Fold:
Amino acid sequence: MKPSKLLAFTLGTLSAIGGFIDIGDLVADALVGARFGLALAWVTVLSVVGIACYAEMSARITVQTRRPAFDLIRSRLGPGYALAGLLGALAVTGLLVMAELSGVALALQLATSVHYLLWVPVAAALVLVLVWVLPFETMERIYGLLGLTMLVFVVAVWHLIPDWFRLWSSATTPAPPAGETWPAYLFFVVTLIGAQMTPYEMFFFSSGAVESRWGPKDLTEMRVNVLVGFPLGGLLAIAIQAVAFLVFFDAGIQVEHLSETVLPVGLALGKIGLAIALIGVFAATFGATLETLFSTGYQLAQYFGWSYGKVQPPAQAARFTTSIASMLLLATALALTTINPITVTIVAVVFSATLLPFTFLPVLLVGNDQQVMGDLANGRLSNALGTITLGISILVSLAAVPLLVLTRAGTS
Amino acid sequence: MTRHQSVRFTLLDQQIIDVDDRRIGRVDDLLWEQPSPGEQPLITHVLVGAQALGDRLGGITGWLMAHVAARLRGTTDPEGPTRVPTQLVGDHQDLVRLRVPLSELPQVAGLERWLAENVVGRLPGAGDADQ
Structure:
């Protein structure tokens, strides 16, 4: 293998790790760790398996058909179904753009003590300039590499000198700890699934494969990215849960702000650790802002068949470019209404969980179509995992909104 | 061997690209003609754009989509949804490939052109819309 090829492998995998963690994870993981310990760690394992399965499947479909996920939803299930999916996905992803952008601003607030609302327009302008100037892959790799600094959370687990037996027993007790109710526990199962199995990751991953003109020879690289990157992202998520558990659980402190997500790292590793964690948070939310923003553009463009993407000059994908810019403007305006970004994040990931089966079903259908996929059709493993994940996502989808209402977003 | 294939899966809703591989829209609807009763119907035109799609979808959403699209197209265009004669459609195995470049179809993708000329193309570094 040529060194340049090896570099491409590593970089791709790194960006998959960075891509897994976003504002939803940063908030939900710390919140869950503080209240439930590691009693929900199994959900992360499940989410990693599920999203890795569908990301691999949709990238494989793209390699074979040169058509990304949303494109296929419409040609398979018709314009009516796809329109409902489009409107739902746009609403959820749009809310997430606002939440991720606020996340970038919150990270900057933690570093500078300047109020995040002042940082929101700056962050939006930075996103706009970088999207305009940098090519797709460079963009992806920069925040992927910077996102690796999040591994400081894993180091922090060791430095907090945990009682490993207690961590293990918490992780192997899938039930609410004393003082918590089952509905609240189940609500956070839904929240974590929504935060970790995000459809935008799938849209972004498969549209990115089209943009990079991946062919069958790139299959191995894609699989390595998925099979190494997503589990490492999951490890990070569990590390965030673990440090929140170790620092906040016994003290009974509730996590309500992004500063509390990074606080345990500061306690374990001092100022340097905190600074590294903040760089990680900045990179992860910044990367996720780009991913969610592009996903809204991809969804619209692929539904209507517009030209899209960053490979050709923006003037040749004018509708795509305009929709992305409008979405960014809208998200900035929403963030500036002073609406609490953490609340928006929780609501967005719960609705995202509701939409999961609608995006999984067409991917599974096409992946199974021998006529379209030929040799690259789903094997037994993909089908088994895909079907189980789809089943779980249907249950989650049905339970999400009732649980949101019943537990008042987990507060009671 | 001829295999029965429904236009629903081979033509309708598929991605349309022009002769330069540029994505220009989707097959949002089809226009039929039956030469005489009892004969095979012929597809005469491929309809492209949100106006055709809105008409096809029906309901309030469809009505809204069709009317917004019609308004965006302005009054200079001929009435009715944007159409491309089937003679211009080449291979449609996977994607629907047209035999001509987008520049020879002035009625198609009007919003794309307008935005490219008046908004995006005016920014520095946007590239050339007619490449």
The interface with chain A takes residues 9, 13-16, 22-26, 28, 48, 50, 53, 56-57, 61, 94, 109, 111-113, 115-116, 119-121, 123, 125-129, 131 of chain B (CB under 8 Å). The mean pLDDT of chain B is 80. DSSP finds four helices and six strands in chain B.
